Amino acid sequence: MPTYDYRCKACAHEMELFQSMSERPKRKCPSCGKSQLERLIGGGGGLIFKGSGYYQTDYRSTSYTEGAKADEAAKKKSDEAAKPAKSEGKSEKSDTKD
Ligand SMILES: [Zn+2]
């Protein structure tokens, strides 16, 4: 299990937590009781999700993102294959001409 560093924005309390990847980030500060905890990623330095709430809730391993991408690509492909060649007319004509 990875260790996560947390820091409270309200009282600057810092701590480490063992959490599984799938667990939600903790919000409540055990020191001051406010929901101002911020999970620090990569031990200090870079707050990846700063200014981007998206990553804060839904950052997962890169393998997940890549998998999703591949999935999307596969979907597109099969989508194209499933479609009858309806758009043959315009785009393909100019394509073959060249
Ligand atoms: Zn606090």
Order of helices and strands: EEEHHH
The computed structural class is: alpha+beta
Distance between the termini: 57 Å
Low-confidence stretches: 43-47
Q: Could you please say which CATH topology applies here?
A: Rubrerythrin, domain 2
CATH architecture annotation name:
Single Sheet
Shape label: rod-shaped
For the residues shown, what is the average pLDDT? 74
- Helical residue percent band: 25-40%
Q: Got a strand count?
A: 3
Helices and strands, with pairings:
Layout: E1 3-8, E2 14-18, E3 37-40, H1 53-58, H2 62-82, H3 88-97
Antiparallel strand pairs: 1-2, 1-3
The site of zinc ion (ZN) has 9 residues, from loops.
How does this structure look, described?
- The structure is a single chain.
- The protein has one domain (3-73): Rubrerythrin, domain 2 (Single Sheet).
- Residues 43-47 have low confidence and may be disordered.
- The chain has 98 residues and is of the alpha+beta class.
- The chain is rod-shaped.
- The termini are far apart.
- Strand 1 (3-8) and strand 2 (14-18) form a beta hairpin.
- It is built from three helices and three strands.
- Strands 2-1-3 form a three-stranded antiparallel sheet, with no helix packed on it.
- 3% of the residues are buried.
- Helices cover 38% and strands 15% of the residues.
- It binds zinc ion.
- Zinc ion (ZN) is lined by residues 8, 10-11, 13, 29, 31-32, 34, 36.
